[in-house]
């Protein structure tokens, strides 16, 4: 029951945001809830990896967490890329793609939150002797990156709500 509720909570925020009239968020429909869910799974795996390394979990357990992190991070990358494409196509992505948030989205989300941890987890999975330090670094990057994903989406949404031209675009009036 707890895992089921965790899954519901993981997609709830994204679902609520995408159902609003805020252009940036509604322009990410139907993939915003999937991004939130994959990001939640990635950050949960990161927290579990840190705990497993701290408690001295077996190499098999740590490897399974690296594989799970690789899967969830890959999904997060796919959903973030799809959302960005939707924003560009619907012309409502300017608050994230063309403002001071642009480098945070590109470097913070695609780099720190997703890309670098994916590379580190790939090394971990392929290595015969995975490193706890590498695992911890990937986990910390994922945790910080998870915050950055949410921060950029919230701040970008706030800016999007101040842009009447974006409302007209999503309603077909502009």
What does the model show?
The protein has 174 residues and is mainly alpha-helical. The protein has helices at 2-18, 23-26, 32-55, 59-90, 94-97, 102-126, 132-161, 164-171. The longest helix has 32 residues, at 59-90. The model has no long low-confidence stretch (mean pLDDT 91).
Could you outline the blueprint of secondary structure elements for this entry?
Blueprint lengths: L1 H17 L4 H4 L5 H24 L3 H32 L3 H4 L4 H25 L5 H30 L2 H8 L3
Helix pairs in contact: 1-3, 3-4, 3-7, 4-6, 6-7
What structural class is derived from the secondary structure elements?
mainly alpha
The number of helical elements comes to: 8
Number of strands: 0
Binned, the helix content reads: over 70%
| Overall shape | elongated
Pattern of helices and strands: HHHHHHHH
Calculate the terminal CA-CA distance, rounded to whole Å: 46 Å
Radius of gyration: 17 Å
- List segments where confidence is low: pLDDT < 50 over at least 5 consecutive residues: none
Calculate the mean pLDDT score and round it. Answer: 91
The description of the largest β-sheet is: none
**Approximate strand percentage:** under 5%
């Amino acid at each position: 029951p707890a895992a089921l509720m965790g899954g519901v909570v993981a997609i709830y925020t994204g679902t609520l945001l995408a159902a609003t009239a805020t252009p940036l968020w509604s322009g990410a429909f139907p993939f915003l809830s999937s991004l939130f869910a994959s990001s939640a799974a990635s950050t949960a795996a990161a927290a579990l990896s840190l705990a497993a390394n701290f408690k001295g979990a077996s190499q098999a357990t740590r490897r399974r967490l690296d594989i799970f992190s690789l899967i969830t991070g890959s999904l997060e990358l796919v959903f973030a890329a799809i959302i960005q494409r939707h924003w560009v196509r619907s012309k409502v992505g300017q608050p994230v793609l063309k403002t001071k948030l642009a480098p945070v989205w590109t470097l913070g989300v695609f780099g720190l939150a997703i890309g670098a941890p994916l590379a580190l987890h790939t090394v971990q999975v392929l290595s015969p002797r995975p490193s706890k330090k590498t695992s911890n670094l990937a986990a910390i990057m994922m945790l910080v990156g998870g915050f950055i994903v949410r921060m950029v989406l919230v701040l970008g949404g706030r800016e999007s709500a101040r842009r009447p031209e974006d409302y007209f675009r999503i309603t077909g009036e502009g």
